[in-house]
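REVIEWER CHECKLIST
Item 1: Sequence provided? yes
Item 2: Single chain? yes
Item 3: Sequence as submitted:
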Amino acid sequence: MTLAAPAASRVLVVGSDADVSIALHLHLERAGYAIHCMPGPTELEAIVRAVAPHVLVLLLPAAPDGSWGPALTTAANAARVGVRVVMVAPSREVVEPLAAVAGAERALARAEVLSRPLVVVERTIGVAPPGALGTAPPPPRPAPAAAALAAPSPQSLLDAGGPLAAPRQRTKPVDLMALIDEELVDEPRSRPLPTRVEVTVSLVSEHNFYVGPTRRVDSGGVFIATALPPAVGTRLQVRLGLADGRKIDLEGEVAFVREKSATIGRQPTGCGVKLLGLPGWAVDAIDRFVLARQPIVYAPQ
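Item 4: Structure as written out by the authors:
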């Protein structure tokens, strides 16, 4: 049975996978969708504004390069205004973390799409199919991946397999994130000493990862944007939220500080925190994320 769809249902397919693009073009047009294809992510934001798609399909290569970073940002922004974002890659290992970053409704392996091309326009369970001919499709329900982008839900740690350990501090912890919007004043004052930090890095956060000489996060850590960064050498308890929704508790040490007086352009003030004991699975997840968002490069003096 063919899937009925209004002619107004526009699908924009982005990527150079010829086999998948041809399969989608043939099957979606037959099902009544208007399909537009572009070979790569360059100038995607302008194309999205021109086409105004209802469904945006990103065909990722096995190793996405830096050119896909702006495309994922565009996809995340489109998802927030009701565009259904679907991401396809040769394997789920590649597509799932990046789908969480981009707020995608679906993360699919290439083989799934080739075997059943209409899966890219099918809605998740419990959502009605597109409306009758000549009507616009109803807005989609928020995708779990989009929720993870804005505020990832707590999950058990995968490396330990158990609950997060309770903090050993008996005094009330100082929340570093509460200091982000505070402004520095001219009068000297004592710098607060935070003990615990919770930070989530996304495509649009002021927080970011930083890398060192190896250009991998295991030679760097996480940059925390705050108006009052603690001094170099300060030890912290860091709860790090990854783009795919997982959270991990780590020890950290402030490696460098970017003061307000040293801010250049739109770069935020803050501190780079070296993450101690970062497990291999988290290093791999962060390395996949930095393909979509360029990290800060920090070279110790």
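Item 5: Key structural point noted by reviewer: The radius of gyration is 22 Å.
Item 6: Recommendation: ____
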